[in-house]
Amino acid sequence: MKDAKELVKEKYGKIAEQSSSDQSSCCSSSCCGPQINYTVFSENYETKDGYNPDADLNLGCGIPTDYAGIIKGDHVLDLGSGAGNDCFVARAIVGENGKVTGLDMTEPMILKAKENCSKLNFKNVEFVLGDIEDMPFDNNLFDVVISNCVLNLVPDKSKAFNEIFRVLKTGGHFCVSDVVVKGALSDKMKKDAEMYAGCVSGASEVNEYLKIVKDSGFVNIKVHKQKEINLPDSLLSEYNDVDELKSFHAGETEIFSITVSATRPFGCSCGGVC
């Protein structure tokens, strides 16, 4: 498989560059292959304050702002901010006196988000080019960190959560929606480039995922929502033998999204920067 980060940059760069008429599917045949449509992950934002359809590329797998405990005046960081969808929803919550920062490593996404922000004339929303594993921010900067179906695309999730810990203020918290698995994916599914770009093969086993969060120093870990993601047999059969497919049918192997939150405790913790 290609270098994971370069693969993600390439695929999501193409998504960002699609015309508005093509944005009904986050993975059309022009960018991710004709058989993969990952809009099955996404949720409907249309009733949310701050929602802007131009910023919604159907790339999420939850609505983390629903459980993030954001309040007026907060400084919120959105990891993998894409075209700005979650940033604009968060901005409606923090108000004029708060601030929202979006971080994305894909230049076309940053350009698209800035274009959307300029149309909305928001002065307290910014978009920064950077890597989640090595964020270009000072320690103890943000009140809340959110992310939507992005951390599964990060090769080193321990680095990512250590960085989230570092940039949060003590007592701050994160809320992310992400794709995880129960059981084990087949080797073929894990190694496939398109499945990686589509959020599947990079997904961690759920207990491993939550352990990474805990080992990074976070407390008050809570899973707010869990949603099973059913991929069609026509797709699964390309990556699984008969026994592996039976494991999906029996519920022994599952792909699902979770929305989880946790807090950076006051005082020193071994998992992050003191």
Along the chain, the helix and strand elements come as HEHEHEEHEHHEHEHHE
Overall geometry comes to globular
* Count of alpha and pi helical runs: 9
Question: At the third CATH level, what is the topology name?
Answer: Rossmann fold
Computed over alpha carbons, the radius of gyration is 18 Å
CATH class: Alpha Beta
Mean pLDDT across all amino acids: 86
Instruction: Give the name of the CATH architecture.
Output: 3-Layer(aba) Sandwich
Residue windows where pLDDT falls under 50 for at least 5 positions: 19-35
Short descriptors:
globular, Rossmann fold, alpha/beta, 274 residues, 8 strands
Write a brief structural summary.
With 274 residues, this protein is an alpha/beta fold.
Give a written overview of the molecule.
This protein has 274 residues and is α/β, with parallel strands linked by helices. It has a single domain, classed as Vaccinia Virus protein VP39 (Rossmann fold, 3-Layer(aba) Sandwich), CATH 3.40.50.150. 31% of the residues lie in helices and 22% in strands. The chain has helices at 4-17, 85-94, 107-120, 157-167, 187-191, 193-197, 206-215, 233-239, 242-249, and strands at 75-79, 99-104, 125-129, 142-148, 168-182, 204-205, 219-228, 254-263. Strands 1, 2, 3, 4, 5, 6, 7 and 8 form an eight-stranded mixed sheet that branches. Helix 4 packs across helix 7.
Topology (elements, then pairings):
Elements: H1 4-17, E1 75-79, H2 85-94, E2 99-104, H3 107-120, E3 125-129, E4 142-148, H4 157-167, E5 168-182, H5 187-191, H6 193-197, E6 204-205, H7 206-215, E7 219-228, H8 233-239, H9 242-249, E8 254-263
Parallel strand pairs: 1-2, 1-4, 2-3, 4-5, 5-6
Antiparallel strand pairs: 5-8, 7-8
Helix pairs in contact: 1-3, 4-7
